[in-house]
TrEMBL record:
SMART domains: EFh (SM00054). InterPro entries: EF-hand-dom_pair, EF_hand_dom. Coiled coil: none annotated. It comes from Cymbomonas tetramitiformis. This is EF-hand domain-containing protein.
Amino acid sequence: MYEIYNMLNKRFPGWSDPPTRATVVEAIKKYDRDGDMLFDKDEFHTFMSEFLYEHSQVLWARMVKSVGTQVGLLPAAAPSVKSAVGLPAAVPDSVLSPIIATVSKAIKP
C-alpha cells in the first residue's frame, strides 16, 4: 500500500498521506482471502479495484489539476514569461513550460 501511495504522490501533484499501520492491517485482513497476510494476484486486483473506486474523486481531481497545469496553463503562460524575462523568441514554449513548472515548485512555500 505504501508503494501505491508513493507512486501516486510522485505522479500527481498534491500530497496524500499514506495510511496508518492499523489501516494497512485492516485492509489486508479485509482482502486477504487465504489469511496468509499477503496479497496474491487476485486479492491485489480486488483490493486495487475497490481502492481506486473508493478514492476516485481525489485521484481524478489530482490528475485533472496536473494535466490542466501541464497542458493548458504552462504553455499559455510561456510567451508572457518569455517576454517578461527577456528571453529570445527562439526559445520554444515547449522547453520553457517545464522550466516554469520546476521553478514554481522550487519557490512554493
